[in-house]
Amino acid sequence: MTQSDTLPPEIAGRFVSSVVLKRDVFSTVERGHFVHEGERVEAVLRRIDLVPWWTFGLAWHFLNREARALTIAGRHAIGPQLLFRGRRTLVRSWIDALPLHIARPQGDVGYFRSAKRALRLIHRDRLTHNDLAKEQNWLRTPDGRAMLTDFQLATRFSRRHALFRIAAYEDLRHLLKHKRRYAPTSLTPAEKRVLARKSLPTRIWMATGKRVYYWITRGILNFTDREGGGPRLVNDAPALAAHLKRHVGVADAAIVAFPDRRTGTGLYAFVEGRALSDAALQAHLTVLPQKAPEHLQIVETLPRGADGAVRTDLLQLIAMNQIDLIEPLLRDESEKQIVGRIVAGRQNLRDRFAF
What we know:
Blueprint: E1 15-23, E2 28-36, E3 39-47, H1 56-75, E4 82-85, E5 89-93, E6 98-99, H2 100-103, H3 109-124, E7 127-128, E8 138-140, E9 146-148, E10 155-156, H4 162-182, H5 189-196, H6 200-207, H7 209-220, H8 230-245, E11 250-260, E12 264-273, H9 278-285, E13 295-299, H10 312-319, H11 333-344
Parallel strand pairs: 12-13
Antiparallel strand pairs: 1-2, 2-3, 3-5, 4-5, 6-8, 7-10, 8-9, 11-12
Helix pairs in contact: 3-4, 4-5
């Protein structure tokens, strides 16, 4: 039995965990089911009972900030609802949506209109998110609406003073950076002016404090969260993928991260090639100091976009077993067949969905 299998007494009997979504020095996040008002609902648990003693104070502070923010975001239906707040736990509703870096809403003006509305609603209640540069904190629902998640750094201001206006401005600027990436032709002249001008505190932070922050979080704590993948995706995956591609029988390889119950974050390697064997590839990786991927799947063809780049958004969903979310992202019948063959041979079978 792992630590994650033993829930704090305040939540025991009400929450059943299915998988660890994320684990770091500030919290452990698990997806599962929660008994709320007599009903069993899909939910997400954030717990701080497993964090090191030296980060507990900050972890508790973040938990409080998120709880306050969720009462507002949930009320406006633009974020998860707060279902339970304990001394060392927080339970929020599960949102059936894709993070922005997987949804990739190319040219979707309606999505960014919805995202702007979401910001207006929380700012009207003097709440700023403060962490919207991360694409994984923006979600896209099946009907195309924007929602927000991960409110640990959110701030509820007492009034609309200068600090609030600066924080709200930065929320908007980060949204417009995503809009510039996915729907650049729809940017208005006013939005372009916002993008061109960082607030003074941000300019100071980027020149001074941000370097110290990176030194502490990445250097000392080894805390990295690129698109929710953690240090292994950032530090290990590039070396593993590059070495796999050096194998004579490998045409290409792509590695994505997925939530793993035992380790918090696992790696899933998709290897394109013929006349290959798992044993040969595993032996090929043994010369590296990095831990081998938890799953390694040999495929005939990797899915690619119009530009020839591997579609890691589809591979990410396969690795996470969110198979039911794939079909709306497929471009044509040919891509559906390619992905269908990969899905049929997938190795991470903790959940099963029809495809």
